[in-house]
Structures are given as structure tokens and as C-alpha cells.
């Protein structure tokens, strides 16, 4: 989905400040310039799709902005660039959005992937205790990643799907009780979409 489609939906929505969303998109586009996903498509497509998933199921402005920016810290090329982007996010979008983005950003200083992943899971779990919005942001991220698994090798696809089933889904389920009643419909819609995407993946294997 191009950003123009999401922008056209948001501009008439009284719950959103379009200017804030546009600022987030412009920053994401700048950071992800010339970056490609393994599928070959521009990387910026991914945060737009994650934001669109969240908007579709009723996500807040903070969630949409965090979705557009959720990879900018992780994808910063240098320590100085990372610090500059963190400061910019904090100053322009506030502590709540900064917290969401930090919560779903891996520690790229760790070169051992196993150690990095273990720390990341712990980080997500701790963040879920503080803000349920982390849950929706991470699930939407997983849904779009799952939709694009075809660009990976069969071995990596299987590794990724096993990680999803055996780590992420149980982690999210364990924290279901923390999701407020106002988020229950969002939760159901997201989990239904996630299950549908997993089923599609399993059917394509056979």
C-alpha cells in the first residue's frame, strides 16, 4: 500500500493529526532511503503496511506513528545517527511514542544473534507489562513479515514460523489479561488475521 492511501484515510479522521503522521512518514522515508527488503521492494513499504494494519483495526495515532517509525532506530547506520534519531523522535513525538519504538527495536550492538534474540524477547515481555500498545505494534509487524516469507529460503521460513509459534504467540497470549476491554476488539481482529496468515502459509507448503 502506498502512503498516499493511508494518508487519504487519516486526513478525514478527527482522531488523528495528519501533520504528526506526515512528519513520522517523512522521517521513516529518509532513514529507509535506498533500503530494500529481501523481496526486492523498497523497505518503506513495510512500515506503511504495519501502520495500515493498525489503522484498519482501530489503532491510535500513537500506534500509527510508532508503526511508521518502528525500524528507524534499528536501521540507523552509525551510533551517532542512532542517537540523533532517538533525540529527534523524543523531541518531536514525545515519550510515549519513543517508548513504543524503543520497545520493538533490537540491540544492534549485539553481534551474537541468539543473545540478541533472547534479550529482545525479554525486552518485549517487560514492555508489555508497561504498555499494551507494544502488543499491537509487534503483532502487526509480525503479520506483515509473515505475508512476505516467500522471499526467504525454505529453511529460514521454517525457522521464522517456528519462532513465531513457539515464542511470540505464547508470549502474547501470556499477557492477554493485560489488554484492556477497550482493546478487546482490536486484539481479536489482529489475532484472527495472524491465524489466517499462518494458515495460508501452511497450505502453501503442501
Provide the residue-averaged pLDDT: 88
Morphology call: globular
Low-confidence stretches: none
How many helical elements?
Answer: 10
Please summarize the sheet with the most strands: none
Q: How widely separated are the two ends?
A: 29 Å
| Rg over alpha carbons | 16 Å
By DSSP, the count of extended strands is 0
Helix and strand pattern: HHHHHHHHHH
Helix content: 55-70%
Structural class: mainly alpha
Share of β-strand residues: under 5%
Report on the architecture of this protein.
69% of the residues lie in helices and 0% in strands. The protein contains ten helices and no strands. The protein starts with a helix and ends with a helix. It is mainly α. It has helices spanning 3-10, 18-31, 45-56, 61-69, 79-93, 95-103, 113-130, 133-147, 154-174, 184-205. α2 packs parallel to α4 (61-69), α3 (45-56) packs across α8 and α5 (79-93) packs across α6. The longest helix is centred in the C-terminal third of the chain and has 22 residues, at 184-205. The mean pLDDT is 88.
In a nutshell, what does this entry contain?
The protein is mainly α. The two termini are 29 Å apart.
Key terms:
mainly alpha, globular, 206 residues, single chain, 69% helix, 10 helices
Amino acid at each position: 500500500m502506498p502512503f498516499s492511501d493511508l494518508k487519504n484515510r487519516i486526513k478525514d479522521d478527527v482522531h488523528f493529526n495528519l501533520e504528526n503522521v506526515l512528519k513520522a512518514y517523512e522521517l521513516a522515508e529518509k532513514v529507509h532511503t535506498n533500503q530494500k527488503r529481501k523481496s526486492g521492494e523498497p523497505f518503506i513499504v513495510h512500515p506503511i503496511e504495519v501502520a495500515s494494519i493498525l489503522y484498519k483495526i482501530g489503532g491510535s495515532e500513537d500506534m500509527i506513528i510508532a508503526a511508521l517509525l518502528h525500524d528507524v532506530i534499528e536501521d540507523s547506520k552509525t551510533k551517532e545517527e542512532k542517537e540523533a534519531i532517538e533525540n529527534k523522535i523524543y523531541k518531536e513525538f514525545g515519550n510515549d511514542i519513543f517508548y513504543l519504538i524503543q520497545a520493538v527495536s533490537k540491540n544492534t550492538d549485539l553481534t551474537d544473534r541468539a543473545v540478541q534474540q533472547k534479550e529482545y524477547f525479554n525486552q518485549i515481555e517487560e514492555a508489555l507489562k508497561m504498555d499494551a500498545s507494544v502488543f499491537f505494534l509487534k503483532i502487526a509487524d509480525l503479520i506483515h513479515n509473515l505475508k512476505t516469507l516467500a522471499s526467504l529460503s525454505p529453511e529460514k521460513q521454517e525457522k521464522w514460523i517456528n519462532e513465531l509459534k513457539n515464542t511470540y504467540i505464547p508470549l502474547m497470549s501470556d499477557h492477554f489479561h493485560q489488554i484492556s476491554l477497550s482493546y478487546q476488539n482490536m486484539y481479536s481482529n489482529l489475532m484472527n488475521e495472524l491465524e489466517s496468515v499462518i494458515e495460508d502459509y501452511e497450505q502453501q507448503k503442501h
